[in-house]
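Problem: given the chain below (380 residues), write out its structure.
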Amino acid sequence: MDASRDIVIPKEFEFGSDDDVLVLESGRPFGPITVRYETYGTLDKAASNAVLLLHAFSGDAHAAGYLSGEESRPGWWDSMVGPGKPFDTDRYFVICSNVLGGCRGTTGPGSIDPASGAPYGLSFPVVTIGDMVNVQERLVTRLGIKRLLAVAGGSMGGMQALQWTVSYPARVASAIILATTARPSAQAIAFNAVGRNAIMSDPRWRGGAYYGHEPPARGLAIARMVGHITYLSDASMHAKFGRRLQERDEFGFDFSDQFEVESYLEYKGGTFVDRFDANSYIYLSKAIDYFDLEGKYGSLERAFANAVSKFLVVSYTSDWLYPSYQSKEIVVALMRQEKDVSYTEIDSPFGHDSFLIETERQGRMISSFLQTAQRGEEER
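Solution.
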């Protein structure tokens, strides 16, 4: 990152040639794979100050700064990453990559299949959170980092952080787990199913083979509208919109968007279509649904049996997508395994999106936690 202007230069890492393919959790060998990533700060001589940020469902590698001087909005966690911020780039070397199956630079269903010369579409393999983490491990190794000071993420990013501590316990000193779950509930899976069905019901979806044609924009917009509702809360929606009408003083008794909240959701759906691929929505939402540490290992306690990380787990009172009780299940399992875990529940009205908004309160905890973890590593 160019600190003088906060301009970030994205990088790419490629692997997975014939003699270096990635074997997915499904058992399918897959490659080649391109990984888009960004870095902030400087890796120290001992390569001991690296922090891996793990993005949520609709995020990407662009966590902080600006991609160009003309970009109007910074990265998705810019309030948390930078000099003097919780992920202090004067102290830490911060990495963020786009996940496998995504559509923002890392290989996904919209990428070109070298065997056919056409986009993968639905021939792209089903991927899991574990597969995403295995790709990240290749990147971290390529960067010369044997042990990460921390992995950190919220929502789907929190799932990846948990998977890191389970899949690569010796390579993770600490984990920051925000607004997440060890296995999505039936309700969360149901919302993802509605989103996928909205996309697949759009005539323009063409069975996933819409590349080169008009994309299934309406289906994807509706999927985003449904998903976005789960990121908010009743309190935040009431405060932001209430029952206010848009550009009129009374009901028109027709079926147009009259409430401000209707217009807001339409806007969110429309802007999402401009930056996200419909097939990636299907693949990533399915990866979330498959995530189940308890089912995979027999119990959460068994899942964390070999973990050696220090854990900071944070939940938010108004998060109804991944409610606090699901974070507490993680904490209890870690405590039963006598792991080093700290937990807090932040009273916030912003729903699931709180981990993106509550910069000040969660930031103080994260900053202190990281400094403690760094001192611990120095004493090893």
